[in-house]
Amino acid sequence: MRLTTSSLLVILPLLTAAQQQQQKPLSENLQAWFEKAKSYIPSAATAPVASTAAKAAANNVVTLTSSNWQSVLSPSSDSDPSQGPEEWMVLFSGGNKSCYGRCAGVEKAWNESAALLAADPTAPNLAYVHCDQSPILCTTWAASVPTIWHIQLPVTGADQSTPATTIRKLGLNTTTVTAADIVKIHAEKTYEKRPVYEGALHPFDGWAAKAGLNVPLGYVLYAAANIPSWAFMIVISMGSRYVMSRRTGGAPAGAGRSAPLGGAPPANEPAAR
Predict the structure, then answer these.
(1) What is the pTM of this model?
(2) SS3 230
(3) Three-state DSSP class for residue 81
(4) How far lies 48's CA from each of 43, 45, 53, 117, in Å?
(5) Percent of the chain beyond pLDDT 90?
(6) Where are the alpha helices (DSSP H) in 162-213?
(7) Cβ–Cβ contacts within 10 Å for residue 206, how many?
(8) Which three-class secondary structure state does DSSP give residue 84?
């Protein structure tokens, strides 16, 4: 088969485009395929598409609560230490109370990314926390919304030692985040650009967690954050009155003072003659 000059002019751009497509990261290819698929669907059908993504996310994402997070976020007993730590991505989101109604776009992108990651055999485990519904858990973890926590759960070694749990926090832009941005956290390891979290409220390795005080401390912090400002003013007022009464020996105001010049003498002193 002979190739003419005109045939080469047609084939070369196609080969170049194919080569560029192969060089793109997996996350970009997945997002491009997803967008192309949506382009064939009429605009009136976007709601069913979003619903399908939400259903896919529901099948692939574990909802964490104050009662189940410790059992869910623990390496399985059959984990192979040679495979390295168990990878998790946890989305902290909320509604009108914790996110002021700005997290709808984030959750839409999260649902779409969960559907994309479901096709990746190396994808991390996915979990979700709604801070309006689980405020104690968000307070216990000191988690802000919307953020994704990338967690690497260590596997217990043969000597029964457990290394530290690595956590990195990635903030999300409520207006510009896309499913591709979330997929890149795993596909391109963008989480490595963030520092490792080592705070006192680290849910696994912080001093409160090691002392078994992280959950009680979460309740205390949550209660303190929800005390109205007027209650603090009442406490401050009562405290200042108590301090002043201690300083004056408990005597009523004005007691023990001499009468002004030219006035009547105190009741316990005789009048001068």
Answers:
(1) 0.67
(2) helix
(3) helix
(4) 10, 6, 9, 20
(5) 40
(6) 179-187, 207-210
(7) 19
(8) coil
